[in-house]
Specification:
With 213 residues, the protein is of the alpha/beta class. It is built from 9 helices and 8 strands. The longest helix is centred in the first third of the chain and has 14 residues.
Length: 213
């Protein structure tokens, strides 16, 4: 896989939990070619062994350093991937640090200023805030918009990745709110052409010329 030049604005893609490994392999390889920076293996229904199998298989089509495992800190540590992404039900950041390697990232999902403060104080390397816009994966929850998001990005320098209903056309609004990048689910995982879909987000990220944090 050729080394690719990336901007500081990140494109994260999150697996849906509804695709087979073979489908995700094809999607991930195409999305990486289109400009994806990180793939989150978010497979709640799978065992630790299955998640490890996924990491090993995916590392054949994207760099291991581009893979994050959601919730399964044990798999993240054992595989040596980019790190672990923690949800509300996951280990605390401090506990995850005890397991992970020094160079691995710890990210946290947050949904409010208070949760962001807790994660930053605990030492999270980045935050993922959502859902910002109406999202098919959260049909019964009202979107949070960018108001509180702007308060979070103004308060701390920890990178914040925006999540939820983000299209290439809405990417600029998320970056203008102070985000360091965007996270995408169905916009890429369900796309007929994952490479083209990723390229559309990558172009929107690279095109934005607002103030850098």
């Amino acid at each position: 896989m050729p080394k690719q030049m990336r901007t500081s604005r990140e494109l994260h893609v999150i697996t849906s939990g509804r695709q087979t490994l073979e489908e995700v392999l094809r999607m991930a390889e195409a999305a990486y070619a289109g400009g994806m920076d990180y793939l989150h293996i978010r497979e709640k229904q799978r065992t630790a062994r299955e998640c490890m199998d996924w990491v090993r298989a995916l590392a054949n089509v994207v760099p291991l350093a581009s893979l994050l495992v959601n919730d399964r800190v044990d798999v993240s540590a054992a595989s040596g991937c980019a790190g672990a992404h923690l949800a509300y039900h996951s280990l605390e950041v401090s506990d995850a640090r005890q397991v992970l390697r020094r160079e691995q990232k710890v990210g946290c999902s947050v949904h409010s200023f208070a949760e962001a403060e807790q994660a930053v104080t605990a030492g999270a390397d980045y935050l993922m805030y959502g859902h910002i816009f109406p999202s098919g994966s959260k049909p019964n929850l009202a979107p949070r918009g960018t108001g509180e998001l702007m308060k979070i990005t103004a308060r701390w320098t920890v990178p914040v990745i925006g999540l939820g209903g983000i299209t290439p056309e809405r990417t600029a609004e998320v970056l203008a709110a102070g985000c360091a990048g965007v996270a995408v689910l169905s916009g890429i995982t369900n796309a007929a052409d994952a490479k083209a879909a990723a390229m559309a987000y990558r172009e929107a990220l690279d095109r934005w010329e607002g103030n850098e944090k």
